Structure formats: C-alpha cells, structure tokens
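Dear support,

I submitted the protein below through the web form. The confirmation email said the job was done, but the results page showed an empty box. After a refresh the structure appeared. I'm attaching both so you can tell me whether what I see now is the final result or a partial one.
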Amino acid sequence: MGLNNWFSKFSPARRKAGMHCTLLLALCQFTPVLFAQQQAKLDEVIAVVNEDVVLKSELDARFDQVQKNIAANPKGPQQPPKDVLRKQILDQLILENLELQLAKRAGVRVDDNMLNEAMSGMAQQYKLTFEQYSKALQQQGLYETAREALRKEIIISQFQRGAVKRRVKISKQEVENYLRSEAGTAAIAPEYHVAHILIPGNPSDSRHAELADQLYKQIQGGTDIRQLAASREILGMAVSGGDLGWGKIDALPSVFAEVVPALDAGQVSKPFTSSNGFHIVKVLESRGGSALKLDQSKVRHILIKPNEIRTEPQSEALIRQLYQRIKNGEDFAEIARRNTEDTASMVSGGDIDWINDGMLPDDEFMSMVHKTPVGALSDPFRSATGWHILQVMDRRVQDATEDNKRNQAMQILGERKMETELLNWETELHDTNYIDIKPNALN
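What the results page shows now:
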C-alpha cells in the first residue's frame, strides 16, 4: 500500500470522532503559521501523557492552523465553537503523542527513502517536483520541521494499521453474503470507457447495413470511432454517437449490456441492431472488475548461497558442477534434495510448484523463468538470494476470477471494519494509559 493511501485510510474515522485536523493537513499549507517558532518565554505543560507531555504552544499552533484551513475552505464543515474545537485538537494531540510513544516501543521507523516518497506525493498534489516543493519549504525555513512532522504522521499511520488490522476478522460467510448482495455486485463490477456510433433508420434497410459494415472495417483499421460519429453524415446517411465516458454496465444504455462485457479494451463490436438502427461500440479502456487470468510457470530449482565457510567463487563453482552433473544425465530432483539450500523446496527435490508472474520478489529469478523454455535447464545464474539453476517444467494460464472476487470483497469489508475498529482501539488507548489534563489546558 502506498504512503498516500496510508493517510487516507484513517482520516474518515478521525472525522467521525470529531478530530478535524491531522499533521498531514497542517503540512499541506505553505504558510509560516504551519509551525510556530519556539517561543522565547518558557512553555507551559497542558497535559501529561505517560512519560511525555503536550505543550500549550503545540495546541496554539495547531488551533491557529485548523482555523485557517477551515476559513480557506468555505464549502467544508462549519467550524464548531472555539472551546469545542480546542478540546478536539487537544484530544488529538494527546492521542498522537500516545501513539508515537507506543510506535517507538514497537520499533516502527521511517527511513529517508520512504519520507522522500511521501514528500514527492505531496509535491504532485501542487503540481510541483520534489525539488520545487523542498525549495519552497526551505525558503520559509520549514523544511526540516515539515519532514519531521511528516515522519511522525507516517509512523502513526503505520502503527495504527498494524495494530488495528490484527483486530479485524472477516468470515467466509460474510464474504459470500457480500458477493451475493446488490452492493457487493456493484462494487466489484468493472467500469468501461465506451464510444459508439449509431446509423439511425430501419434495421432492414440494406444501405444502412452496408454503411455499418464499412464503418466497422474503418474502425478496425484504426479510424477514430468518435471522429466518425462527429461527422453527423456519411455517404448521405445520418450518423450520431460519440464518447459515453466511464460507466459500469448498469449505467450504460441497455442495448449495450450484452455487447460491452464481451469486449476487451481496444476491441470493437461488429454492427448490431436495435429499434433505432445499427450500432457499433468500441471499449476504449476498462478498469476494475474481478476477471483475472494469471500466467503461471511450474518450476524447480537448486539454490547455493555463499556463507562464512563457502566464498562467492566457491559457491559459483559448486553450482556449475551441479549443473554439469544434471546435463550429464543425473537426476535433478536427487541432486536438489542433497544440495539445495532452499529449505522450503528441499524435500520436494527443488520443486516450488506453480508460481505467478511477479509472485516472487526476486527479479533476477523471475527473469530467468521467463527466458527458459519449457523442459529446458537454465544456465547457472546469480540472484539476490544466491546462485541458482532452474528448470521450467510447464506453463499455463490460470483463471483466478473467483479467488480475485473474494479477495476484493475481503479488502472492501476489511476497510469498513478498520474504520470502526480504529475508533474502538483509540478509545481503549485513551482509557488504559496515564493521561493528566491540566486545569488550565483550554484557557
């Protein structure tokens, strides 16, 4: 899951809880008010959270920024009374402080690469490059502070997701019920970007049939169906239609309901008739849906890894010896059982069964799988995990549509439950940790 998605997962639940601001929201404004400068006078502790504290300057800075954000978005939620807003923000600061403490104990870390990726995503929202966005922050003296605030937001999001995900349980029956429901069918249905052309008139008119056939051949040959529809008249006969945009089947004209799902992206339907005349439909693009076919390869391999006893050159020499023994007629499975250092496939003679394209993170290994013909033995090669030889025993295309449907349903139901469980979890955190709010905290 991408960094931008982490941020979006929890904001709805926080809004439900009355928390209208996050660190990320504060980062999204180019304004010095974003991060208040350290006050010259001594700061004031307004809340103790376990072994840490929340300062009055933190609350003041966040309160000022939230007010500015609300004022800048007149179509957004109306600002609550100031005392209510300050209480909501203080609650949020306490919760963030608590979650950061727990995340630190759990060892959650965000490295600079992950942080740069998140900042690049924010820069794109402003149509800026990473360098331009960074420079804008540096010019206002906010760069380091912004990075640190963003680092905290990512840590909180990671910790939340890990902690809450363990609480979410989804039964097989829930998945089946959802897939049978109208809402489930609609959510998983694919969307199509469709264009069409209509030759209005009597479907039995041979002139219209001939024109439809001619236009079909032109579109098949690369002519833009939208341009033809925009012509309004071809060979003295009226035409209409155009780009219908994106939509699911139930949003498209009923006459297309049987035609469109049978077309892949880029495909054109043969002319078909309705009471209005002749139609030709082209699916320009498609997205979503549950249909999934996987290219799979059945593979066995032998792995030799360098270690404290065996050097890199010695490992390479050994794998080449094993390769030559197999080429000379010795049994692959027997050599694998006696020599491979892949414990998962050792007992099965190196057989790792069927693997999908992209299933393994080892790019060099998958690249060799693709290059090796069925039945052939690969040359020895080095990957991230060590030295290999492999044999592709078979290939197939596997229909994984049903599994994909269930996976999508699990994801949708999981995200719904995550919202509820997040609120429950945060309430429990608040109730089971030491929090002391000072009497003058909201003054």
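Response: this is the final, complete result; the empty box was a page-load delay. The CA atoms of residues 315 and 431 lie 57 Å apart.
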